[in-house]
What does this fold into?
Amino acid sequence: MTSLHPFQTNDARLWPVYDKVVGCQRLTADDALALYRSTDILAVGWMANQLRERMHGHRTYFNVNRHLNPTNVCVAACRLCAFGRKKDAPGAYTMALEEAFEIAASGYSEAVTEFHIVGGLHPDLPFQYFLDLVSGLKQRFPQVHLKAFTMVEVAYLARRAKLSIRETLEQLKAAGVDSLPGGGAEIFAERVRHIICDHKINGDQWLETARTAHQIGLKSNATMLYGHVENEEDRVDHLLKLRTLQEETGGFQTFIPLAFHPDHTPLEHLPRTTGMLDIRQIAVSRLVLDNFPHIKAYWQMMTAKIAQISLRFGADDIDGTVIEEKIYHDAGATTPQGMRRQELIRLIREAGREPIERDTLYRPVVRTETSVTVAV
Ligand code: V47
It folds into this structure.
């Protein structure tokens, strides 16, 4: 299923890219830069949409998920972040396990198929807390997929428990972790990382942790934080590093570009991203990451309106119901905390796409009045 509109552009730099896209050839760093620099956003979007429809037709994925952030206490003090707190700072919290189990069960009537669990780097919580959290959730909600802990959290837990990354991931997997979310990747370029998150593992360590997760059979997502102090070359470098690792492991499912929200962060003097940049970033991601099955327009971050438009610019996934979001809202996001399943379906349908409720591994979810089944 491809668009019937002929490709047109006045931007001569886009023609070689067009030839590659229709010829199913891989784009280079220079091609990616041409996409970032082109003034013809519709031509960029047209190409991204071609690839998106070649891969997925009109199918557009969403899920019924719940975010769970067990603690916001964090030893890192990343300039990009408004969520983390020092242990004794006002607003710092850490959930007792029973509290986390109660929150997981609360606040929503539709059966959730995924818990998305991420938090701060807590200096005192033992590794056992996280193993107990995961196994306790699995025991109470055996049908729910646990997408838990960023590469940054895994590396920190490994260091504190004096285990290798592989051992840490193996223990988390044995306790019930089913896959990993894509957070913490930020921008791999050291110059930028040094400014926005110099307390985190570096880009190579993030990629190595993802490699190890994939090697032991855990799928993961990948993100990129854009719209702060990075430049176009840094973004291209980030995308190409992910594409190279994906060639090796095939373990990434979804790429999620995340627009920087500056409010209440030490970088709050920076302007917010514009709708044009957000849409372009989705399109460039689709075109460059040709070996990533899915590109997600995370509505909480982009707003539902821009996420909906993105479904015509390369995105095939809009994330989920979320229910309660903290990381973006602490940084000034004005989107609602959650969205009901029917609203997500309406957004997708009104973009002229076919909504498919998926589980975390992109298997269709079938709902009846009384049951929820994953079609394997
Ligand atoms: O790693 C933190 C980012 C990420 C800010 O895997 C900020 O399906 C903008 O990774 N402005 C966490 N961004 C969120 C995340 C995610 C979200 C949705 C789906 C998935 C998935 C993953 O949020 C962090 C960081 O890159 N972040 N602070 C901020 N002020």
Remarks:
- Residues 80-82, 150, 181-184, 186, 221, 223, 225, 256, 258, 260-261, 265, 298, 319, 327, 331 surround V47 (CB under 6 Å).
- Residues 221 and 253 are 5 Å apart (CA to CA).
- The two ends are 25 Å apart (CA to CA).
- The longest strand covers residues 219-226.
